[in-house]
Design goal:
The complex is a heterodimer of chains A (284) and B (327). With 284 residues, chain A is mainly alpha-helical. Chain A contains 11 helices and no strands. Classes of the chains: A mainly alpha (284), B mainly alpha (327). Chains A and B meet through helix 1, helix 3, helix 4, helix 5 and helix 6 of A and helix 2, helix 5, helix 6, helix 7 and helix 8 of B.
């Protein structure tokens, strides 16, 4: 009886442990499936024209997404200008100056802001930057993305500043440097690699965001000069093309998907590699 | 001794300048403190402005429909009559499907990574899973349209009908798009969150807990399932909440595969809409003020739900991690 019991327990052990391994394998294989599909379908449709030409009118095949690529870059630039300074300085506040209560509130709010659905951020940007002027604009889209950049930058900045050894701060202060000089000339440079990494990752994350752009930056068949007009962007064009009925659109959607995924993955893998090397050098 | 004191004293007057300068530097600290504080406060400002804008811009709809907005099933832009029930239903159903698939899968994978896999392999896989979380939502939608939807129409749907067709969930026409497809795509999207948070939480469980269980003769699985997992359950629950909040608010992938219909149907094959997908697909078409206001109220509802869930999730995760540290 007890022997049977033992056999049962041991087989259950093997079975369940195998299942957990299978689960992990399954999830990881999804990543490779996604990669494979995009490489296969996107690779077939990706050509030079994709990067250099404007979209052709519906029905004509060919053309590219030059305007959407430029649009995405402009949106990211705005997002960086709006989101990164706020994220960086708030991170500095939390790591170096913060008191107890206000820091806790800020940290908590930052997490909540991070969890706000991107479509709601879109509505927010719409009410702040589109409703008052009554037209869609590159600026409104960049603003929406900028808001999304903030929380990620805050958390990564704070984390990397905290990883800087306290002895460095004490050394600088002992030499007579004031607190802000210590931060500006010793602590921030020490954490530079990590902080920049965090910033790049947050930009990579918003580069693929579609929902907040739908009714802020909207879309545009043509190039969009300046900042006050609606603009095409890779994710929004990808969405429009993938949901549309034309084969040529689908082809281009796959190509856009490949470019977007490559961008995000390269940013993630690259920063991770840079970080692990920098981390080893710092001994963190 | 005294001579040094004298020189120090005699040097005192010229040092008045540098001293004042040092004092000003201290003020510099205060300036830096204030500047960073202002930026930190701006985050509170942004978050409260989000609430304010959602609240004021949904005024028309709130004034006209009141609480009935939440349980009316009509959504009629022509007669300007709006109720959110079909979309709330769609949001809950798709998220529930996502969790039913993602929680067991994610928890199992997290257990494997935290308990079984050697640390280096575990870290490697965890990185790949983080990459999965970084894949943009619209790319999941793209694959949803061209891979999952045809698969649902030709393989999964028919099989479910044949085997479980007696249940009301798996009856009715199967178009490929619908609640079930959206739920499946969502489950793939939230599983990385469950895995990475659960793994972290499981790794904080003290080693002696495992060793004690193993020393008492428990198998590896028993030690994991009866000791380690219960120890970490609050944090795991937190990860589930986080995944739920993410599933509820997920927009693009769902919009692309759910079929865009205002329907409450027991059949999971039925096309539908979630709160987020409704906003995404109708916002730019909203012609009337009341229509727009109703859509923004949908946004408000979504915001409040995810706000509460995220708050709870954070508290749970913090609570477990603290518990792990103290023990």
């Amino acid at each position: 009886m007890s022997r049977l019991n033992l056999i049962w327990r041991k087989s259950l052990n093997v079975l369940m442990l195998t299942l957990t391994g299978v689960a992990a394998l399954l999830v990881v294989s999804v990543l490779f499936l996604i990669l494979g599909y995009l490489l296969w379908n996107g690779g077939k449709s990706l050509n030079w024209a994709f990067f250099t030409q404007l979209p052709k009118p519906v029905g004509e095949s060919g053309g590219g997404m030059a305007n959407a690529i430029i649009g995405s870059l402009k949106l990211l630039l705005l997002a960086a200008l709006i989101g990164l300074p706020i994220g960086l300085l708030t991170g500095v506040y939390l790591a170096e100056f913060g008191g107890k209560t206000f820091s806790f509130i800020t940290r908590y709010t930052t997490d909540l802001l991070n969890g706000v659905p991107s479509i709601v951020i879109g509505i927010f940007a719409y009410s702040v930057a589109v409703l008052p002027v009554k037209h869609f604009s590159t600026f409104a889209g960049g603003f929406a993305l900028g808001v999304m950049v903030i929380p990620i930058t805050v958390r990564s900045t704070e984390e990397f500043l905290r990883a800087v050894p306290g002895t460095l701060r004490e050394g600088a202060m002992a030499l007579g440097a004031s607190k802000w000089r210590t931060i500006a000339t010793v602590v921030l440079p020490a954490a530079k690699g990590g902080i920049i990494t965090g910033m790049l990752l947050s930009l990579a994350r918003v580069a693929g965001e579609t929902a907040p752009l739908l009714f802020t930056a909207f879309n545009n068949m043509y190039s969009s000069p300046g900042w006050g007009q609606p603009t095409a962007s890779l994710p929004v064009v990808l969405y429009t093309y993938a949901s549309g009925p034309y084969d040529d659109w689908h082809r281009q959607a796959w190509a856009a998907g490949l470019v977007l995924l490559a961008l995000v993955l390269v940013a993630n893998v690259g920063t991770r590699l840079a970080l692990s090397r920098g981390g080893a050098a710092r001994g963190v | 001794m005294s001579s040094t004191a004298t020189t120090f004293d005699s040097a005192a007057p010229p040092e008045a300048g540098p001293r004042a300068f040092i004092r000003r530097l201290r003020h510099g600290d205060e300036v830096a403190h204030t500047i960073t504080l202002v930026f930190a406060a701006s985050i509170l400002l942004v978050t409260s402005t989000i609430v304010y804008e959602l609240w004021t811009n949904s005024h028309l709809s709130r004034a006209k429909f009141g609480w009935n907005f939440l349980w009316t099933r009509v959504w009629d832009p022509i007669f300007d009559n709006y109720g959110a029930l079909p979309y709330i239903y769609g949001t809950l159903v798709t998220s529930a499907i996502a969790l039913v698939i993602a929680v067991p899968l994610g928890l199992a994978a997290a257990t494997f990574l935290a308990e079984l896999a050697p640390r280096r392999i575990s870290d490697g896989i965890a990185f790949l899973i983080d990459l999965l979380a970084a894949v943009p939502s619209v790319i999941y939608g793209l694959l949803g349209i061209f891979v999952v939807v045809p698969l649902m129409r030709t393989v999964v749907g028919p099989v479910l009908k044949r085997t479980l067709g007696f249940l009301p969930f798996f009856q009715g026409p199967n178009y490929g798009v619908g609640f079930l497809t959206a739920g499946i795509v969502l489950s793939i999207m939230v599983v990385p969150f469950i895995i990475s948070v659960s793994r972290e939480v499981l790794l904080t469980v003290p080693r002696d807990q495992r060793e004690a269980a193993l020393a008492l003769g428990a198998t590896r699985w028993e030690a994991t399932w009866k000791v380690v997992v219960p120890w970490a359950r609050t944090g795991i629950l937190g990860s589930v909440f986080l995944a739920l909040a993410r599933a509820l608010g997920e927009t693009m992938a769902v919009t692309m595969v759910i079929g865009n219909a205002t329907v409450i149907s027991a059949s999971l094959f039925s096309p539908g809409n979630t709160i987020a997908s409704t906003i995404a697909s109708q916002f730019t078409e909203a012609s009337g003020d009341l229509y727009l206001s109703a859509l923004i109220e949908l946004g408000l509802v979504l915001f409040l739900i995810t706000f509460i869930l995220n708050g709870l999730a954070r508290l749970l995760i913090v609570a477990t991690e603290r518990g792990g540290q103290h023990a």
